[in-house]
Amino acid sequence: MMPTDAELVARCLDGDEEAYRALVLRYQDGLYRYALRMVGSPDAAEDMVQLTLIKAYRSLGRCREPDRFGSWVFRILSNRCKDYLKSRQGRETAIPEDWPDPGGDPSEGAERADLLRRVQHALLELPPAQREAFVLKHVEGLSYEEIAERLDVSIGSLKMRVFRAREALRELLGGAW
Q1: Cα(80)–Cα(101) distance, rounded to whole angstroms?
Q2: Which of these, 25, 73, 83, lies nearest to 52 by C-alpha position?
Q3: How far, rounded to the nearest angstrom, does the alpha carbon of residue 37 sit from its chain's CA centroid?
Q4: pLDDT (tens digit, 9 = 90+) per residue, 80-110?
Q5: What is the pTM of this model?
Q6: Count of alpha carbons within 13 Å of 13, Cβ hemisphere only?
Q7: What integer is the mean pLDDT of 2-31?
Q8: pLDDT value at residue 149
């Protein structure tokens, strides 16, 4: 049986470094996907996730709800991404390694890669709050309830952010969306 986040946090606070490693393995992929979609740069996303995980480790004693470690560390990363975007550093577009599908038709792969580039560029044009809500809902596939817990905002507010993001993407992408 897998230990809960609260159990792992308690073990970390008792000096068990392997327990933190388990938390990192549990959350790092999702954190990276989120950071990549928010900032568009694989290198920046990787750096942000690493810095977030270090900060979380150093601040673990201040995690008030250890059973919600995932939401807590996500908020740290979310704030880091927003700070990065405010500083207007790096606006490159990232293409995940699995795009286009290497086993598919090359012409379809090129079309998919082009569409993905356009979508990623359009995502970077959205205000950070809309981008964040859209990515969590439509890229990560989280429910509004899960997103509300992570971002500490109302479901109604999230639905409006996602709606506005979709409308903005439709306008930015024209017929491709």
Answers
A1: 31
A2: 73
A3: 6
A4: 998 888 775 444 434 444 444 445 555 666 7
A5: 0.67
A6: 13
A7: 95
A8: 87
C-beta of residue 148 within 8 angstroms of C-beta of residue 154: yes
> Hey, what are 174's tokens?
């024209």
| 3-state SS record for 26-37 | HHHHHHHHHHHH
Could you tell me which of 153, 133, 141 has the C-alpha nearest to residue 38?
133
d(CA 170, CA 176): 8
Nearest Cα neighbor of 96 from 78, 74, 73, 119 is 119
Are 100 and 112 in contact, with CB atoms under 8 Å apart?
A: yes
- Both tokens assigned to 116: 């993905």
| Contact predicate 3/9, CB 8 Å | no
Using a 10 angstrom Cβ sphere, with 0-12 exposed, 13-18 middle and 19 or more buried, the burial of residue 135 is: buried
Question: Cα 135 to the chain's mean position, in Å?
Answer: 7
What are the structural domains of the chain?
A: 5-86 (1.10.1740.10), 106-176 (1.10.10.10)
Residues 6+ apart with CB under 8 A from 8: 19, 20, 22, 23, 69
